[in-house]
């Protein structure tokens, strides 16, 4: 692990074998950290924040370090991407695209580092000068999920570093290798020791001690609703700040006036592009009743052509499920959907055939005859399973889409400009795409409402998540007024 600028084994000497989800073989060994390792990492981050070289740097110097880190990521992008594919089984095309995009996060937020400005307030008190400062919080813990390890880390580290904080990064135990390789680039970039620390291991063994540590001021978490709830409850005890990016059951809505060729691609990309293993997956496909049958059939026909196989092969379109528990969960949800009366129009089984490695694949699956009260329409499957729901008109579409515990994302397909704008206003979602789906940028806020999370990542809003405001009052008067009267 990388703690305080040093490469160290876990205090207890334990390790975890990580398995390539395509081959089914152990391919890397990571340290199995526990509470003692969490303590060392937090203390290192705290020392770096309070007494190290980091707080002495100007904001411009912080930004320069971040841009240098971005350059190093760009230089090593292909190696990092291949490590992520070996760890999580997602497509090389997708992971290489993500990693090549990561430098932009550090360039953008590095550029914002010296543009965090307070304000002079024309206060309503005579002989008083009042201004505000925006200051870093201190030690932050970043906990990431297994589906896009480095992208999720950049979402947290880049704005938090720009604000002047220090970090302990805890990646998923299933996908820790790329975070450790990333730490080598942090070291090479010249960050002061302790500014970024990486600890690995199981959530309950090393993650929980990080979350509950008294010196930690903020937790930024991407993962399951259950994990987010536990972190939120724990953080509340010490009034820690949190950013929680959790699950979704996003509605991808197709009206009968849409460009249907594009909408079919949007429906496919919304659910199968990452084997459904993405929080913004358009797992509920709402189709206007007037075109429901023909449109769903077109989606089925397109999905039949998806090529399953080795994620390292650039021709593969659907890769394996990342973890054995998730693979089991997806198959269980398919059986639940069948039991609820869903009509399985495509797939519905574990995929079989040549070139499927260890076989941890689920066929692209589509259910018709779904209503919004079925579990398949209400609970996050996090796999290549699409639930198709008909609707009558705009009111019906809004009613169905908003009838969810989640509010992360939504898609709208229509050629009617008025409808696109009105739907974007009425849909309960942190992000709404119109005539597109599953686009993200370091420039634009990412986050959801309801049980989809708290706070935002990306964009200028993300920097504010890592700052606290201080109001400074200075008297310019020559005499102190009556001390018993509130000024």
UniProtKB/TrEMBL annotation:
Stretches assigned to the Aldehyde dehydrogenase domain: 7-472
Gene3D superfamilies associated with the record: Aldehyde Dehydrogenase, Chain A, domain 1 (3.40.605.10), Aldehyde Dehydrogenase, Chain A, domain 2 (3.40.309.10)
UniProt keyword annotation of RNA-binding present: no
Pfam families in the record: Aldedh
Protein name: Aldehyde dehydrogenase
PROSITE patterns: ALDEHYDE_DEHYDR_CYS, ALDEHYDE_DEHYDR_GLU
An annotated Gene Ontology molecular function: oxidoreductase activity, acting on the aldehyde or oxo group of donors, NAD or NADP as acceptor
Active site: 245
PANTHER family: ALDEHYDE DEHYDROGENASE-RELATED
Taxonomic placement: Bacteria, Pseudomonadati, Pseudomonadota, Betaproteobacteria, Burkholderiales
Keywords: Oxidoreductase
The UniProt record lists the keyword Oxidoreductase: yes
Protein family according to the UniProt entry: Belongs to the aldehyde dehydrogenase family.
């Amino acid at each position: 692990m990388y703690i305080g600028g040093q490469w160290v084994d876990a205090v207890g000497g334990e390790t975890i074998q990580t398995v390539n989800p395509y081959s089914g073989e152990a391919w890397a060994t990571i340290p199995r950290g526990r509470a003692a390792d969490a303590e060392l990492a937090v203390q290192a981050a705290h020392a770096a924040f309070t007494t190290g070289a980091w707080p002495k740097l100007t904001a411009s110097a912080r930004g320069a370090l971040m841009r240098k880190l971005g350059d190093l990521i760009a230089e090593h992008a292909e190696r990092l991407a291949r490590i992520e594919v070996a760890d999580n089984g997602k497509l090389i095309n997708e992971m290489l695209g993500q990693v090549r995009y990561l430098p932009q996060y550090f360039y953008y937020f590095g550029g914002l580092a010296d543009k965090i400005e307070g304000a002079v307030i024309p206060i309503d008190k005579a002989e008083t000068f009042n201004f505000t400062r925006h200051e870093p919080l201190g030690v932050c813990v970043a906990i990431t999920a297994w589906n896009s390890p480095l992208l999720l880390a950049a979402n947290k580290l880049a704005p938090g570093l720009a604000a002047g904080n220090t970090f302990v990064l805890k990646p998923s135990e299933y996908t820790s290798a790329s975070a450790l390789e990333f730490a080598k680039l942090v070291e090479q970039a010249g960050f002061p020791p302790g500014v970024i620390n990486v600890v690995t291991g199981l959530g309950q063994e090393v993650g929980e001690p990080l979350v509950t540590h008294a010196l930690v001021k903020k937790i930024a978490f991407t993962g399951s609703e259950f994990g987010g709830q536990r972190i939120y409850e724990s953080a509340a005890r010490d009034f820690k700040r949190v950013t929680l990016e959790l699950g979704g059951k996003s509605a991808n809505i197709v009206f009968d006036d849409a460009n249907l060729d594009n909408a079919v691609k949007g429906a496919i990309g919304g659910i199968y592009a990452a084997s459904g293993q993405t929080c913004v997956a358009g797992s509920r496909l709402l189709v206007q009743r007037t075109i429901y049958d023909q449109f769903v059939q077109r989606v089925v026909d397109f999905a039949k052509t998806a090529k399953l196989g080795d994620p390292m092969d650039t021709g593969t379109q659907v890769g394996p499920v990342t973890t054995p528990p998730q693979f089991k969960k997806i198959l269980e949800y398919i059986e639940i959907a069948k039991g609820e009366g869903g009509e399985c129009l495509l797939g519905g089984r574990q995929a079989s055939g040549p070139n499927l490695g260890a076989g941890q694949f689920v066929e692209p699956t589509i259910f018709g005859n779904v209503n919004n009260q079925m579990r398949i329409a209400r609970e996050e499957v996090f796999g290549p399973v699409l639930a198709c729901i008909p609707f009558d008109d705009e009111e019906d579409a809004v009613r169905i889409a908003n009838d969810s515990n989640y509010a992360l994302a939504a898609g709208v397909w229509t050629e009617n400009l008025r409808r696109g704008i009105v739907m974007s206003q009425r849909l309960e979602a942190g992000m709404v795409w119109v005539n597109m789906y599953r686009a993200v940028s370091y420039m634009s806020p990412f986050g959801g409402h309801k049980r989809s999370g708290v706070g935002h990542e990306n964009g200028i809003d993300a920097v504010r998540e890592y700052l606290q405001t201080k109001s400074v009052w200075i008297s310019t008067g020559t005499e102190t007024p009556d001390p018993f009267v509130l000024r």
